[in-house]
Write a structure and sequence with these properties.
Elements lengths: L7 H15 L19 E3 L4 E3 L9 E2 L2 H12 L12 H18 L7 H6 L1
Antiparallel strand pairs: 1-2, 1-3
Length: 120
């Protein structure tokens, strides 16, 4: 991966999102999981997707709308084309929070220690 122009953080998050999708735990990212409202900007691992301000629960955390759009693109984009995607440091951090929360809740894995190794 070194020297190939691939952002390892983006590749790891894309792989995690694709793996969750294949396992049947793909996060619902387009519109509020409950009411379908387009102004969704918080994620709930328990509800499996984004929620609007009216439907927020206790286990939600905010996501930038650009991060939500990027996560959707990562799921749709083949892994061999992931290197074309770009993300800000904030988006990378939010994507890491999203995938960690998704895995911790749905797969009951807790913290994935190998993630730190991959990040380094």
């Amino acid at each position: 991966l070194m020297g190939t122009g691939i952002d390892r953080a983006i590749l790891c998050r894309a792989f995690e999102l694709k793996l969750a999708d294949l396992a049947g735990y793909s996060p619902h990212l387009h519109g509020c999981t409950y009411c379908g409202a387009e102004n969704s900007a918080a994620f709930s691992p328990r509800q499996g997707g984004v929620l609007c301000p009216s439907c927020l629960g206790a286990d939600t955390f905010n996501l930038d709308r650009g991060t939500i759009a990027l996560a959707e693109r990562m799921i749709e984009t083949p892994l061999n084309l992931i290197s074309q995607l770009r993300a800000s440091n904030r988006q990378k951090s939010e994507l890491a929070s999203l995938t960690a929360a998704l895995y911790a809740y749905h797969l009951e894995l807790g913290e994935i220690k190998s993630r730190h190794l991959l990040e380094e």
